[in-house]
Amino acid sequence: MKKIERVQTGLRLEKNMLKVLKGLAEKLEMSVAELMEGVILHAFEGKAPFSAETIGTIAKLKDVYDLDLTAADAHGLSEGEADELH
What count of other Cβ atoms lies within 10 Å of the Cβ of residue 65? Predict the structure, then answer.
């Protein structure tokens, strides 16, 4: 196992997306941070991070937590009222 140094970071995420991540992390018996590290490392190599079974679990969690965002939304998100104040 490789030794690493982790740092605390302030990361803002869409609230329902975070609920799905927390649910998936719990299902996979890992922390959200560990889940995100795995997703990011896979993305850096252009690899899919999830099995078909896990994608099914994600779909169920998205339904439970009303997450209707898709990859197509990734570059067009705004924070609504907070953005309008600036």
Answer: 17
CA–CA distances in Å: residue 40 to residues 19, 43, 44, 49, 63 = 18, 5, 6, 8, 23
Q: Mind listing the pLDDT tens digit for each residue in 5-60?
A: 999 999 999 999 999 999 999 999 999 999 999 999 999 999 999 999 999 999 99
| Contact predicate 31/22, CB 8 Å | no
Is residue 31 within 8 Å of residue 25, measured between CB atoms?
A: yes
Whole-prediction pTM: 0.86
Cα–Cα nearest to 39, from 71, 16, 3: 71
Q: Which residues contact 67 (CB under 8 A, 6 or more apart)?
A: 14, 16, 17, 19, 20, 61
Helix (H) or strand (E) holding 43: helix 32-44
